[in-house]
Amino acid sequence: MTQTTDFKFADLFAGIGGIRTAFEAVGGECVFTSEWNKYSRQTYEANFPATSDHVFAGDITEVASDDIPDHDVLVAGFPCQPFSIAGVSKKNSLGRAHGFQDPTQGTLFFDVKRIIHEKRPAAFLLENVKNLKSHDGGNTFRVIMQTLQDELGYQVQTRIVNGKHFTPQNRERILIVGFREPNAFDIDSLELPESTRTVKDVLHRRGESDLAHDDGRYFNPRTGRVNPKYTLSEHLWTYLQVYAQKHRRAGNGFGFGLVGPDMITRTLSARYYKDGSEILIDQRPRPRRLTPRECARLMGFGDDFKIPVSDTQAYQQFGNSVVVPAIEAMAQHMRPFILDALTRPAAVA
Fold first, then answer.
1. Mind telling me the catalytic residues?
2. How many CB atoms neighbour CB 184 within 10 A?
3. Is residue 2 part of a domain?
4. Which of 18, 33, 220, 250 is the most buried (most CB within 10 A)?
C-alpha cells in the first residue's frame, strides 16, 4: 500500500473496502466511509483500522453533507439490487417496485447526487452491474447520466469492464467516471490486459504461504487438503444435477457451473452461500465450493486480507464486492487527471 498520499477520497456504500483498496494503491487517502451492514463493517474495520483523520458512518441517508470531510474524489459501489437482473426478478415476484421506484434502495443514488452537489469533488467513480444500462428500458441509466451531466455539470464517461482481464472470473461491471472540470480523460483508452490466469491460480495449494489469520478454517497447507465441509453433500449434488437436467430439457441455460483448474469461472454472486452452484470445483467423488479465501483471491484481494466473519457472511460480502485490480487499473488511469484537477479552481455549480 502506498505510504504517501496525493489526494483524499470518500468511500460510499463501501462494503468490505474493495474500491478503497484500489484507490489507496494509487496514492489516495480515505477520509470518509459509509457502510450500514454490520457484518461488512466488521470485515472493513478488521482490514482498515480506525484513525483520527478518518470518519466511519453508517446509513448514508442519515449523514448530513456538512458532516462529511472535504474530499477530492468520491467513490461508490451504490447498491445494485434494484437494477440487477436477479434483483428485478426477485422484486417482481414479490410484487415490489424496483429501480427509482424502490422505496428503500432505488433512491440511494440520490444520496450520491446530494453529496456530489454539496461537496463538489474533483472527480468520482461509480460502480454498478452491467444491467444498469438496460434497466427499465434504459430510463434508469438515462436519469443517472442526466443527473450527473446536466444537473451536476460533470464530464462523464462510462465503460463496461470485465474482471476476467485481471482474475479468472467472468464479471462484467459498468464503471462511471466523472470529472468536475473538462479535461482530456478518455475512459476507452485504458488498455485491459489479456490475462492468462485460470482457476488454479486462486485455489489452495500445498505449501502455500502461511495464512495465520485463517487459523486453518479453510485449508491445511501441510496436507494440501481443503476442509471437507466445502465438498457438496450427496443430496445437494444429486439435486443440482437433476435441476440442471430439467432446465436443459426446457431449453433454459440454468444449471451449475463446474470448473477445472485451467478454466475461468462464472460471476461470483452474493447468493453463493446457498449452494455454490455457479462456481463448483471439479473433484472426485463430488465437486466442492470455493472457500472464502479462494473467493477473496477471485475478487483480487491479497492473502493479507482478513476474513473475520462466518462463511455465509463472507460469501455474500465477496459476491457483492468489486474485482480490486480492475478498479485499481481505472483509478491509475484517472490519477493524473485527478492530480491535475487539484491545481485548478472549482467551477461554480
1. 80
2. 9
3. no
4. 18
